[in-house]
Task: structure prediction
Amino acid sequence: MRKAKGGTSGAKTVVVAGDLIWDFNLVQYADTPAGHHEPVSRTLLEVTRGGAWYLKDLVALSCDREGVNVCGPDPDKGSPSDPNLRVNQAYQVWSLHHKTEEANDSREQVWRISQFLGCHRAPPGGQAPVITGDDAKPALLVLDDLHLGFFEDDTLWPAALRKGGEAQRIVLKTSSLPTNPLWQQLLDRFADRLTVVLPVTVLRARGAVISQALSWDKTIEETVHEFEHGASSEDLARCRRVVVHFGCAGAASFSRCSSRRFPPPKQGGKLRERAEFELFAYSPTDLEGVWKLGLPGQTFGATTILTAALARHELQPDDYPIFIAISRGLAAMRANHQVGAGAGKFVPSAAYDRIGGILHASTKEDEAASRVYFCAFPHDMLTDPVLRRQPSAKSDLVRDLTGVGFEYVAAKATEVVVWGIERALEAAPKAKYGKFVSVDREEVERLNAVRNLILLYRSNHKDRNPLSLAVFGKPGSGKSFAIEQLANEVFGRDKAVLKFNLSQFMSEEQLHVAFHQARDASVHGQIPLVFWDEFDADGLKWLKHFLEPMQDASFRSGGVVHPFGRAIFVFAGGTAYDYASFDRSNASKAVRERFVQAKGPDFIGRLRGFVNVKGPNPVGTANAPGRTGTSQQSADVAYLIRRGIMLRVALEQCCPQIIDPKSGVAAVSAGVVRGFLRAKRYLHEARSLSSIVSMSTPSKGRFGAADLPPQELLELHVSPDFLTHVQQGELETSETELLAEACHKAWCAAKKKDGWTYGYPRDDKKKKHPWLVDYRQLDEAVKDENRKSARVVRAKLHDAGYEVVRTNSPARSADLRASKQRLVEIEHDVWLRDRLLRGYQWAPVTDEPLRLQRAVAPFKHVRPKDQELDAAIVEGIPPALLSKGYVIKRRTPAPGRRRSPARRRAKT
Result:
């Protein structure tokens, strides 16, 4: 374990205090004796120091540098057998568990807690260990409140909390929100310097309505609502900062500090009256508690690790930014659970080196561990009017990634097809179950809700009734596939899948045969997944036959009652394409009465959840919010992303030869991609999209327009405009690459004009930059930065009122001078959104490893030299397009609505 360096003249003092625990760890070795006569070959009981002792160790680990002296309760005084020592006692059983979800080899097992046996609270009156080096005015005071008596007994408090004491900053780690005098004192005296770190379970325990593991958008909205209108608005919002974590998957930060994301206002460090949303760090592939499902066993210390990272931020806010502290803390929490108490010999501190490495980004592996987290952010820095007006209580993380409007979403969908889902949608929260992937918020939330229901049902063996779920979507949308893939993730092989199409059943006896098959599967110890396709067929006549099985886990056949075992019933709609159209409870009187007679309300009352699977076609026809004049209006522009995902999956399955095995880039014509994405309608939903790909005959290296099936076959599956879009074409990969290179050349020219030269590593003071080389010499990751800008050239020009047109004759592009400022601001916005999503914040000097950038600011605050970089990129676009036969034209505005004669007269 690293030891803090301290004791030097002028060192910053950190004092750690709080509840203390003796952890009695009972270790279950495989060779544990079976009887009293057999000798014990290994130690079965390990006693370790927990609570504030453990917190002090991790703070020292996090703040390990010259000039920092970490003090805490003396670890060398007293023992677990000392009755006069005021220390609580906790007991837990440890056993071996798989280190990773994929590992099945016993050599890959580590020690984790299999059972927590409880905690004995120390009786009052004992003497707590003295804080060695206690300082009445430390640079930082870190408190550990486990609700075990420390807050109630002022004799245990450090000097900084007593009369005459005063810490410059205070960090409180708590497992519950206390109602004792010390908590009130912290709020009344030290709120302006107090940071509170707590798990979200603390807020839920006192009534906060924050859902679990549905979607990050929902989590952000509900957590912001709690701090703006809930109980937290009365106390926690008074603190300087509050960090709420959702396990190792995410964390929210609320702060009263003036934003450090752009140059601070003239009032400098003046605090706001109440804490406001600052950021939300999240893992796009995980939700609260999901990651640990495949890694059984428990580990303690999650909040402690995050607190240690935040302690370093409080000591060094300029050298250890808040997002860096939170993301590294979350990554270290994850590593702590993976490592546990080590493999082989039981070592309670086995994870210390890995935790310390991640908190300090000691190696590339350690640094990469925190790169999996992205950042939700306030939008007040953006120029885009739609995003800038978006309140913190409204979250749309996919739109933060794509940008606003049809053309931006289409550009991102093209990236999905060409680059692959993981690369293009890296920052998008997603539900990924087997081969089914969705980033559509409604689908994600419904699927995750169903996942939660299945997990709860699987673990609750007292629930004997079938778990009844409904899934809706148009035929061919993939609704049954989505649920089946989800069940595969949850159950693995421990299930049977049965499928029955009720529209093909002619009699009640056939239904009873199906019931018996489901019953037989459950008798064999499995939880069968039973699909009842087209359950709403034949005028809903089958609904009444399911009421008894759903309610009483039994059915009647031949006068005999047959009990069901545990099962999951999935009712897939055939005539109703979503839940709202199936539920006729609020329809006209005649329709409602027929629905009641068919036992529709009784059936709905027995359902525990439902999912609407949208498929590749747009839902709704309203205008796209926030934009006018788009090439294809729809309230559901996210259908482009759904299509992109489906097309990429179909290409991987049917045309693997066109996908580069190293880069993952698909060699597919941009015109073909445009046709798939922009076609008005797929006649048979996802089934049609997949059929077109499977009927195509791409050559070994590329999928072009000539490889598509004949027009008469296309007409079986897609609207006639498909080929029109294919023929219109799109910027090909080579042309996009040329634009990316042009962007880089323009950037290099502007940097060199400002006096920059090549140098590694980057040095802003000496104006040295490692990217000042030929485009072909750049790393792929740096090239991708330019490709992102090039990929949305059409969208950026469209936003400013232009379009890109192919020409076969010499032509000139439109003069962009009148719109140059707007285009430069759009260019900065695209770059800024990408940086904010990755957790960058403003700083006077750029430091890429710490995600500090001087240009992370509203455009009007960006230095003129940095604005010139965006201007140079904009100026480089027209000649690059022209070299490939494209010109920029002023876009014809969409025709407006005709006013009625009465309105025309009123206008006159």
Q: What stands out?
A: The mean pLDDT is 88. The longest helix spans residues 733-753. The chain has four domains: 12-376, 393-427+622-728, 441-612, 733-890. Residues 441-612 form a domain with the Rossmann fold fold (CATH 3.40.50.300).
